Structure prediction request, 232 residues.
Amino acid sequence: MELKNKVAVVTGVSKGIGLELVKLLLEKGTIVAGWGRNRPEFSHENFHFFSCDVSVEEQVEEAYLATVGKLGFDIRVLVNNAGFGVAGSFETMSSEDWKAMFDTNVHGIFYVSKRLVAGMKAADEGHIVNVSSIAGLNGVANLAGYAGTKHAVRGISHSMYMELRDFGIKVSTIYPGSTQTGFFDNIDGAEANEHMMRPQGVAQTIVQTLETHPNYFVADVECRPLRPRGKK
Prediction:
């Protein structure tokens, strides 16, 4: 897809991969609606921030209506990036944390995507990118809830692309490994470090996936740091 002058919605733009993706899209001439709980410390004439917690469907509806009101109905790109993880053993994980992860990481994708599909169908062109995780391909001790949500993202994404491909809409899934983001801030014994992937690298992979030929569809992209523990 040619990204110049296209309208994109990106969720989870407050920091990390989402914010870096916004910056790269703007360099391509894309008009970006950034949805997030907190406004990033960033401004650009083609960046429009809309306050939204994707786990709350009423807020998603409000952000969607505000976005369409400002930028129009013709939205060709959606990147479902919003997500978070809480670590803890299966038996001690609180039900509140468990549900919160599913509300954001899984239900949020449903709430957001369903509202943008009609416009993409009308244009006979669209691309939805869902950000999963390596934890969406493997089990991870003490991250059962998070891994469960990211496995769900994979199943949802594959089902979506089977429904939407005949309408000119691609649905791709990205599975990043450990990345230097705020994900690790609330996980005891783990912290972002220089051996992890840079969020800019993951964002660049998403842009490359978006820029593919109209009849070339990338279903899954797995990304990992080359030397996760540094040189031996």
User: Anything to note?
Assistant: The mean pLDDT is 93. Helices lie at 16-27, 57-71, 95-123, 144-164, 199-210.
